[in-house]
Known about the structure:
The chain is α/β, with parallel strands linked by helices and 293 residues long.
Amino acid sequence: MNRRDILKSFPALAAAAQLSAQTASVTRTGQGRLRPGLVAYSYRGQLEAKKMSYEDLIRITADLGFEGLDTTVYWFPDTSDAYLAGLRRTAHRNGISLYSVAVRVRLCQPTKELQDAEVESAKKWVDVAQKLGAGHVRVFGGTVPKGVSEAQAIAWAVEVMKPACAYAGTKGITLGIEDDGGLSTNAAPTIEIIKKADSPWAGMNVDTGNFPKNGYEQTAMSIPYAVSTHIKPYVTDAEGKRQPADLDRLCNMFANGGYRGFVSLEYEEKDPEIGVPKLAPELIRATRKYSGV
Length: 293
């Protein structure tokens, strides 16, 4: 390689080094910026019973003062280009960002055939996310088979996460693993998958209410890897008991950690028509307070 070729390679080497540094955690500088959002799963009963459409929910999201909707796609009637374009139009006209596509991809799979199937499912939803204008797709760690070590389960999960992230990166989409049972019940193994995936397109969808114990402590561990966030009305204590979530404490933690993105309410009780409007102003207030707005 001559001197001119060496000099030409410097920008590429610098870019590669920067991407490598980003794989351990999300690179952040400056004050956090928190945007209030809503998780569609909050209205799962209404969506499943077809008493509410996603178009209805987009308008409700706007009326309540939220800025974005995590779509939770389980009740999409279809994924045709026409349907997705219509949703995107409705969102634009209501000033709502359809920032996330939450799907049932489960990373921990014991065979190559099952792993490949999950990768293909992830690719499908990455394409849907791109058509909706979303920058994030939520996935799960998956169930650990009986008798299988955590280390082996993580290795299997990485076999799905790596190629899924490689594809997602070509579309500008980030994959966030949610702490939600199975392999990703707790922060530590979830973070380990992200580290081993070794991709700037891998991160964590931090659900502050899903940790079985020590919710605030596990949330703090997760913030450096957070690419999306769900906030439930409760957080677990050291004994695993649910306590009312301190929204100021949580938003302050994310802001001080330099997180910039949506902090979205996920309401799991049976009365979202009452509970969500009640909690919305508090979450919106807290996100603005700790974003310096």
